Each structure stands twice: as C-alpha cells, then as structure tokens.
Amino acid sequence: MTNLSSRQSPRLSDAIALVTGATAYIGRAIALELARRGARVVVSGRNADAGRSVVAEIEAAGGHAEFAGADLADRMAVKALVEGIVSRHGRLDVLAASGAGASSDSLAFKLFMDMSGDDFDTYIRSHWLARAHVIQAAAAAMRAQGRGKIVAIGTDAGRVATVGESFIGGATGGMMQMCRVLARELGRDGIRINAVAMSYIADAEPRWGGASPALAGHERGMLQQLKKRMLFPVHCDDIARAVAFFAGPESDAITGQTLSVNGGLSTPG
C-alpha cells in the first residue's frame, strides 16, 4: 500500500535546465523550484547582480546553479547562451522560457488606436520573439540528443480577449499557437513543448509603463478588478509548480497544451 505522506515531488535528477527571465518574481520562483527538484539550473537574465543573488539562494538551499546573462531580444546572444550551456554541460534537458513580457521597459495596457508601429514591434518582440529565439536555440540542442522539455510562460490575454491588451494578447496568442505547431514538428525528435498562462500574480509587482492616457488613471483599478474576479489567489510559486510539472517525467504524455493558472478568473477552452 502506498504511503501518500511519504510521496515527494518527482525528481529532475540532475537535469540541465535553463530558466530565462530568472532574476526576479516568476522566473526566480521557477529556478528555485526546478533546483529543489534536483535540476542544475542556469539562471539567465539581463541583471547580473540579481541573477547571481538567485544562484546564491539556490546554492544556500543545497542546489546547483550558475548565472549566464543574455538579452532575449538578441537572437544571436540567445543562441550563444544555449551553445555555452551545451559546451559546459554536454546537453540541455529543460527550457523554461520566461521574462521580457513584464520587464521594466515593456509596455502595458494600451488601446489599439493609440499604438504606433514601434509599439507593435515592442509587443511582438517582448511577448513572442523573446520566446521564439530561445525556443529555437534550445530545440536545436535538444534535437541532437533526442529529448527535451520546453515550457513557455505567457499571459491569459493570449486566450481571453481583454481591452487594452490587443497586442499583448495577440503576440502571446501567436506564441501559444507556435508552441502547438512545434509540438507536432519537434515531437518526432523526442521534444515536448507546452505553455503556462497566467493573469494577476499576487506577489509579482507589475513593472510596465506607457499605458494609454484613457487607461493610465485606471491601470491600478484594472488590476484590482482582476483580483476581485479571481476565485483563488495565484502566487509565483503556483506558476513555478505548473512549469515543474511540464518539465518533469509525470507530463511525458503531454505536449502542445496551454495550462491557465489564473485562480478561476476565466476558463478558456
């Protein structure tokens, strides 16, 4: 008879895991959770001091980690990041593609008619291309070894129509559809790819700027309304555990899916 009280989270048994956008909030929580489950985590981001702090936190808890900086918007820098990991460790087993979508230089709620062409480009780069660059680089490494797990983190605006998020949602929706297609393309190489979507995160401070004037005064109110509509609070650790599920062996039969961790705010099909 199984002793349920003795069951532990599935181990990642020294898997080499890259977590982008791992210097704070959701990315940091993912890095900590994967390390707790036994992965050797490469913490990546643009802020080296913050990244090394996350590494120190992991090591203090008995885990293994290192920092490797890269700008997710720079395709060649991301390619070099992954090639460096393979050179040092011989392989890359897990990619958690987070970051860029809520960094300090990202745009927030903006009405479509208020956007410029540069705004279009910014949204697409931060919510789609920042994922595409690292997914392509990681997939190249994983194809060579015949296996791998990729988890892309995005926003529920890619699944649910939200005023002020036409391009945040549009770019994320494109990223999620890309992942569904890649599940078919890369599955033959033993690579699984899934996405985790979220809405308001209680312990992740929004870091956006540049909202539309019509929305700027209501931005905090919009976030408060999201909180009121949620049935349950969601924290960074909740996103991290969902990512760890997709990264671990218990999800081996799952690919091409998007899991919304949104506290019941919406129930997209």
UniProtKB/TrEMBL annotation:
SUPFAM superfamilies: NAD(P)-binding Rossmann-fold domains
Family matches, as Pfam families: adh_short_C2
Matches recorded under InterPro entries: NAD(P)-bd_dom_sf, SDR, SDR_fam
UniProt record similarity statement: Belongs to the short-chain dehydrogenases/reductases (SDR) family.
Identification of the protein by name: SDR family oxidoreductase
